[in-house]
Write a structure and sequence with these properties.
Elements lengths: L2 H26 L15 H15 L11 H22 L7 H17 L2 H16 L11 H74 L4 H27 L3 H6 L5 H9 L7 E6 L10 H21 L5 E9 L4 E8 L16 H12 L3 E6 L5 E8 L4
Helix pairs in contact: 1-2, 1-4, 2-3, 2-4, 3-4, 3-5, 4-5, 4-6, 5-6, 6-7, 6-10, 9-10, 10-11
Length: 396
């Protein structure tokens, strides 16, 4: 028997017990305790209270009208039960206490504590608990030892049911918070992918398109390499977008495998395909730096640093003629140092909408610091700009 069928059997058994207990209430309603036949009073008040309680507990979730909120479900039966108790005291008519109403009020207390909005949970839970505690005094307001004993038992049951419902409510809240945090983390990660990869390629397409337009009249014979670069950047942008959409559609390890992250080898390809006519891009890589000895998350973060720095050069310093990318391993501190420097003066011909909103460096700093690294970005001593990140290589 699988878990679904087992849960169905348990639920069916619980419903059967509750209905049977309510039938006992109706049979004993108004009796004198010597017979199950209603000989001492009317049955309909108990029957009405029992039916209201059963409807509130057992009404299928998919068929409940909008007005039947948890507040209504838990408050109305409790008020009906309290009114029946008050009426029995006024007319001095004894009403036999049965198990059905007790179980129903306990079920409603559970629903109130677990499912009602916070403020309503207190109100409705108090109503259900109060209605349960005054059940023993029906028809006789004297607080005999028997009545007091029943009320003590009622308090214990109320504490157990409310405590269990509150515990489940706290689990629901923690689960909701965890799901919300996970979704937020996924959205931030996807936003970072879109910014780091797609924006990089699209910016490259924009810059190379501008170069192609200028060369179309002066150097048409040299257009083919530029157009090839545009084609390559567009292909890479589509591939990055496809991987990101795959992450949005899927979850788990397969989605994580499709996420574009990059590594040290990707930095070499990134640098080689970056330069536009009139620019020189040099990659200086420490011979002692072995990718196999570096954690993959460090390589991915280093790739993002270089990518974001090069994208910002295209956006804000298109007049740069010399760009240096350095990857150095500091043996004394066991750290990987990544730096990107340019000699631009801030000249750019990109539209204002393509300059970015400043979120790239903010997200990059979050990524670097999450790995225990440090990120600095600012003007160089002479001209140009430099981005420098330091990571723990994790070899020691």
């Amino acid at each position: 028997m699988n878990s679904v069928s087992a849960q169905g059997c348990v639920r069916g058994l619980a419903v059967g017990v509750l209905v049977a207990a309510c039938v006992v209430d109706v049979l004993f309603a108004g009796s004198d305790g010597t017979s199950i036949l209603p000989t001492a009073g009317p049955v309909w008040p108990t029957l009405a209270v029992v039916l209201v309680g059963l409807a509130a507990v057992l009404w299928p979730a998919g068929r409940r009208p909008k007005w039947l909120t948890p507040q209504v479900r838990t408050a109305v039966p409790a008020l009906a039960s309290a009114l029946l108790t008050a009426a029995s005291l006024l007319v001095r008519g004894e009403v036999m206490l049965g198990p059905g109403e007790i179980l129903t009020l306990l079920c409603l207390l559970f629903i109130a504590v677990r499912h009602c909005p916070p403020r309503w949970a207190v109100v409705c839970g108090t109503l259900d608990a109060g209605a349960l505690l005054i059940l023993p005094v029906r028809g006789d307001a004297a607080l005999s030892s028997e009545v007091q004993g029943m009320q003590v038992i009622g308090l214990l049951l109320i504490g157990l049911v409310a405590g269990f419902a509150g515990y489940l409510r706290s689990l629901d809240y923690r689960r909701t918070v965890a799901v919300s945090d996970t979704r937020r983390s996924e959205r931030l990660a996807i936003a970072a992918d879109l910014h780091d990869f797609v924006a990089h390629h699209v910016t490259g397409i924009l810059v190379q398109t501008q170069v192609a337009r200028m060369m179309a009249t002066t150097q048409p014979q040299d257009l083919d390499p530029v157009l090839a670069g545009i084609e390559r950047a567009a292909t890479e942008a589509l591939a990055s977008m496809r991987r990101t959409v795959g992450v949005l559609r899927d979850t788990g390890a397969e989605a994580a495998d499709r996420r574009p992250v990059g590594d040290l080898a990707g930095i070499t390809e990134l640098v080689e395909g970056f330069a536009t006519p009139g620019q020189q891009v040099a990659l200086h890589r420490d011979p002692a730096l072995s990718p196999d000895a570096l954690p993959h998350e460090v390589q991915a973060a280093a790739f993002r640093v270089v990518q974001e720095a090069l994208t910002n050069i295209r956006r804000h310093a298109a007049d740069a003629t010399h760009i240096e990318v350095r990857l150095r391993y500091d043996t004394d501190t066991d750290r990987l140092v990544v730096s990107v420097a340019d000699d631009g003066r801030g000249g750019t011909q990109l539209p204002a909408a393509a300059h970015g909103g400043g979120f790239g460096l903010v997200g990059l700093k979050e990524r670097v610091t999450a790995l225990g690294g440090e990120l600095e970005a600012g003007p160089r001593g002479g001209v140009g700009w430099e981005v420098r990140a330091v990571f723990s290589a994790g070899r020691s």
